[in-house]
Amino acid sequence: MTKWVGKDIAKLLKGPDLTVILESEPGGDFDTCPITVGVNGTDDNLFVSGFITGDEVISDWYDVDVEMVELSDGLDSRGGLNSRNPKTIQAYADIRIKLAKEGFEIVDKMEDYF
Question: Are 30 and 51 in contact (CB under 8 A)?
Answer without folding.
Answer: yes
